[in-house]
Design brief:
Blueprint (H helix, E strand, L loop, with lengths): L18 H6 L16 H9 L6 H7 L6 H8 L4 H10 L4 H12 L9 H17 L7 E12 L6 E15 L12 E4 L14 E5 L9 E6 L9 E12 L3 E7 L2 E7 L3 E11 L1
Parallel strand pairs: 1-3
Antiparallel strand pairs: 1-2, 2-6, 3-4, 4-9, 5-6, 5-9, 6-7, 7-8
Helix pairs in contact: 2-6
Organism: Sphingomonas trueperi
Protein name: SOS-response transcriptional repressor LexA
Pfam families: Peptidase_S24 (PF00717)
């Protein structure tokens, strides 16, 4: 199935999104000026790591910065190490990722990153070159999944899912929106807790690298379990409602309920990027 046929489920909606229309309607703060002279290497290095579809204003606020922060960075390119670390953390990138990107940016005087609007037109080749070179995008592994019982009390009917990261059932096509995430994977929905957005049999694409936001459908990997060595993880497939330093609050659709998970129990949280039958 082509990437353009994907059913996007972030922001709690099983809605077909046209990436071009989204990009064209970006706010002023979220659109780099591509007609200016080449940007500072630091700016270009960060833009090369920016997940597709993430608005600059959103990235800045997720990092605890002013929404228009990138306007100044685009001109001056002199962020502190703490600011760089905050921006990297917001998109789940590492310092090593940044250093490699910065070295590449310093080796060329040409523009390394286009605006998000232009990136839609040229993004397919640019993102392939960024991670996978000039080769066709490799497929995404479809990992095993099973209903894992209940989270919390039985009376709450909060559905758990077992993921078998060491068990690859198949490989599915990699959409362009996962071209920057070599760690992406797919799983098959087996329960009914997220109906009508996600139904049993849906296959969803998941990005461990892209930052998550309120309203996104997420895979929350829980700590603990006796089968860690066998690559079995207990996860919650839910909507992210709220997050704090102490807990994450999640929403389940069927039966409808909201609940909290202590942050100490959360091993990782991955963003669901899209789904298909």
């Amino acid at each position: 199935m082509a990437a353009s046929d994907a059913v996007f489920v972030s922001n709690s909606q099983a809605t077909m999104l046209d990436q071009t229309s989204v990009a064209v309607s970006l706010a002023l703060f979220d659109t780099p000026n591509t007609m200016a002279e080449p940007k500072p290497p630091v700016y270009r290095a960060l833009m090369a790591l920016k997940p597709d579809g993430l608005a600059l204003g959103r990235w800045a606020t997720d990092a605890g910065l002013a929404r228009n922060y990138f306007n100044g960075l685009e001109k001056h390119g002199n962020p502190s190490q703490d600011v760089v670390d905050a921006l990297l953390s917001a998109i789940s990138a590492t310092r090593a990722d940044y250093e490699r990107s910065l070295e590449h940016a310093k080796q060329t005087d040409s523009e390394f990153v286009l605006s998000e609007v232009v990136g839609i037109a040229r993004g397919s080749r640019d993102t392939r070159m960024a991670i996978f070179g000039d080769e066709p995008l490799p497929p995404v592994p479809l990992v095993g999944s099973a209903i894992g019982g209940d989270f919390g009390s039985v009376e709450e009917h909060i559905e758990l899912t077992e993921l078998y990261y060491g068990q690859v059932l198949d490989y599915v096509s990699r959409p362009d929106f996962l071209a920057k995430d070599p760690q992406a994977y797919a799983l098959r929905i087996v329960g009914e807790s997220m109906v009508p957005a996600l139904k049993p049999g849906h296959e969803v694409w998941v990005s461990p690298r892209e930052g998550v936001g309120i309203g996104d459908t997420v895979i929350v990997q829980l700590r603990g379990g006796t089968d860690q060595d066998q690559g079995v993880k207990m996860v919650l497939v839910k909507e992210l409602v709220r997050r704090s330093s102490e807990y994450v609050e999640l929403r389940q659709y069927n039966p409808p309920t909201m609940f909290r998970v202590e942050i100490a129990r959360v091993a990782a949280m991955h963003k669901v990027k899209g789904a298909r039958y």
